[in-house]
Design a protein that fits this description.
Elements: H1 3-29, H2 34-41, H3 45-48, H4 50-72, H5 75-95, H6 99-127, H7 133-161, H8 165-169, H9 171-181
């Protein structure tokens, strides 16, 4: 494998890993803010938990469907859509004046994550030769497992200084950087 192919792989994988990190970070980041969100939005805890449940349901529905989507769209089109969709969802959630709009933003984010996660693996298998795939899969696994583990901590730091809206605003520039890499 020559060095020019490694140079082409790096930005693609960086973009995908940033998107994957934010998708998985989003799963747990909001958990720490749920009780304060319930108070601020004047909804019961059982209702506010739909911000997590709705997100995960949409991710769970879209994960297997992304294989079907690759029959109709190119992988690049799907990746660009997923990252842009997640950006739109983060902006909708950050600007949400009500619980309903916040839930819509979270579900839009779930669409992006559900499409993006399986495609990260597909792209890695496509761009790495057989002898480099294990390392690529290991890095992807590390990022995907690390993000939900640090989500509550990073969200707690954000909430300690800023409002819950900044949990979503922090995602936007990272996703934009990821989008520019693809």
């Amino acid at each position: 494998m020559d060095e020019t192919q490694n140079v082409k792989r790096f930005p693609i994988m960086m973009g995908l890993l940033l998107g994957g990190f934010i998708g998985m970070f989003s799963e747990t980041a909001l958990n720490i803010a749920l009780s304060s969100l319930a108070t601020k939005m004047n909804v019961p805890m059982g209702t506010i938990q739909w911000l997590v449940i709705g997100y995960l349901l949409v991710v769970g529905i879209l994960l297997p469907l992304s294989s079907l989507l690759t029959r109709w769209f190119t992988t690049r089109q799907l990746l660009i859509f997923a990252l842009c969709d997640f950006i739109v969802g983060a902006i909708v959630a950050a600007l949400a004046p009500s619980f309903g709009m916040l839930l819509v933003g979270r579900m839009i984010q779930g669409i992006g994550t559900g499409i993006l996660l399986p495609l990260i693996f597909l792209v890695a298998l496509s761009i790495y030769p057989m002898d480099k795939r294990g390392a690529a899969m290991g890095i992807i696994g590390l990022v995907i497992m690390f993000a939900p583990a640090v989500g509550p901590t990073l969200a707690g730091l954000i909430l300690g200084v800023l409002s819950w809206r900044y949990i979503f605003w922090v995602m936007v520039p990272i996703l934009l950087i990821g989008r520019l890499q693809i």
